[in-house]
Amino acid sequence: SRDYSAPVNFISAGLKKSAAEDMSEDDSDEDEKPVKQEEIPKEFVPKKLKTGGNFKPSQKGFVGGTKSFVDFGSWERHTKGIGQKLLQKMGYVPGRGLGKNAQGIINPIEAKQRKGKGAVGAYGSERTSQSLQDFPVVDSEEEAEEEFQKELSQWRKDPNGGKKKPKYNYKTVEELKAKGRINKQLSAPQKELSQVKVIDMTGREQKVYYSYSQISHKHNIPDDSPQQPLGKDSKPQGFALPELEHNLQLLIDITEQEIIQNDRQLQYERDMVVNLTHEIQKMSEVLSHEKTAISNLSKVLEMVEECERRMQPGCENPLTLDECAKIFETLQDKYYEEYRMSDRVDLAVAIVYPLMKDYFKNWDPLKDCTYGTEIIAKWKNLLENDQLLSHGGQDLSTDAFHRLMWEIWMPYVRNIVAQWQPRNCGSMVDFLDSWVNVVPVWILDNILDQLIFPKLQKEVESWNPLTDTVPIHSWIHPWLPLMQARLEPLYSPIRNKLANALQKWHPSDSSAKLILQPWKDVFTPGSWEAFMVKNIVPKLGMCLNELIINPHQQHMDAFYWVIDWEGMISVSSLVGLLEKHFFPKWLQVLCSWLSNSPNYEEITKWYLGWKSMFSDQVLAHPSIKDKFNEALDIMNRAVSSSVGGYMQPGARENIAYLTHTERRKDFQYEAMQERREAENMAQRGIGMAASSVPMNFKDLIQTKAEEHNIVFMPVIGKRHEGKQLYTFGRIVIYIDRGVVFVQGEKTWVPTSLQSLIDMAK
């Protein structure tokens, strides 16, 4: 049996102990002999790792380390643990570190004292050199093999027996240039950092630097600890020369900066060469353009001097206006830029104005209205400022043509208008019509507003329609195309004078219509209708009152005087006159005639004769239509009521046929008008679309029924004289040749479409 109460022997972790502890441990273990290297089993001998370097335990810690290898996991014999077996199955080799590449450390981390009082990492890596050498961190097996071969080559001897040459790192000029270009882009922030004041308090004494770059170049001060004397087995240490290294590094930096600066200067010079080459090309082009401009200006100056020489009084070949226009055309065609840049106003004033005055000195605009239009139109193209024309301006200081017309041409027009009589308007209108496309718009407006209109206004004030033999429209209306709305102020006094002249007028005098008819389209519709209602319609009403209707001996003069004004007064005014002054007397005469056993054939002729006196437009009016339908109804009643008395043979049939025929005509005319109106609306895009325009009278009735929400449908199996019967609301109708017939008490009565709609509602 085993004694489990005995203490457990833990594995030594290989802690670094002080010298005193080592001495005491050696004294306490004097009987313990060190283990020789030959006695270590082969499987525990450290092998070379692929990661580079060998595990080399120090002489001092070899026994402890070996003991660790031999006794690793020995405490498991007191337990039932199988950890050692599991580790070995997974590939663990005693004496190596854990991990795939055995990169785990065996010895614990050793503490290392820093030289000064700086922060962590200020004096280099905090890891021990032994751990870095034995177990370097690598990224892959290829890098590990390369690192191992590099370290292995350091321990090999040169077969030639000489010393190994040191390796140097070189920088090419191209690398320095590339570095300089990168640094040039980052020069601005570095320049700001180079001016920062830095206080270094990491050493024993406080130091002040004026850039961060000075910190990187500060010297490493050697430790102040006393040097140990060289022993027998010790190697001499290398001497640190920070000043020399600093100076050499400074020389290298200066040389690099000079190379970079020279490269930048060379690139700058090359860019300057390219820029100067482009500048030379541009300047050569400018120089060539200036030479051409100078040559052209010289030629222009020669032409202008030639014009001035020929304008002198004693010149043998004086300059004419046509020749001067040709010279200006040459300037405009061949030297367009110079011509546009020149001061055309001063040039025209000096050369053209004297020639223009001489050209128009004997001109009479009313006798020869087209004189000079061609030459002035040519000068308009040469002198008019297009920019000023586009803005609609009238600046005389910048447009030579406008100034020419205002100062040379306009005085002749003022003189001739001052002597002109407004009633002789033909010559003046022709003159302005021939110059309307040549003269500037603002000058033409000035002529019409300031010269022509005051003369016309003064003449209208002195006009008397009763005594003047010349109608006023003969010398006012020719100005309408030119003046248009400018004549509006003249219309009111003209209407007043015409109204005064019509106070004693009688409709038998046809001269009033001849005077008023030209003004119908000139006055506005409202003012014309008001003038007719006030001055003409009352006179026509008095004339109709004087009309005597006598079937046996009828005088139609008064009726003709009234009907003759149909185109002058509105239809509503004429219908009002007939309803008030004509139809009451006419119906009264018809009733008296029917009550005395008349001849119905004569009555029919008399009815048709009076109806033919009216135009279709008047007959289509509902009021006139109702009056004639009333006359037909009176005749029908008269024929129907005479049952016991004598009846002319065929009278009843004749009156019925007359009624049927007349109403059919009315309905056909109404249908035609409605169809024409619908077609016009469809063409203008108002109301129905073109596809929905009624093609026949039935379609028109269907459309009207839909508009008024009335049911229109055929009656199944019902016909009258072979015509299909329809229901229009509650009314039964049929259609025959564009006429609607409504079922009455005894017979079918023709009716209008509007009356049918009214009955259906």
TrEMBL record:
SMART domains: G_patch (SM00443). InterPro entries: G_patch_dom (IPR000467), GCFC_dom (IPR022783), TFP11/STIP/Ntr1 (IPR045211). One of its GO terms (biological process) is spliceosomal complex disassembly. It comes from the Eukaryota. Residues 33-43 have a biased composition (Basic and acidic residues). Coiled coil: none annotated. Residues 22-32 have a biased composition (Acidic residues). This is Tuftelin-interacting protein 11. It comes from Charadrius vociferus (Killdeer).
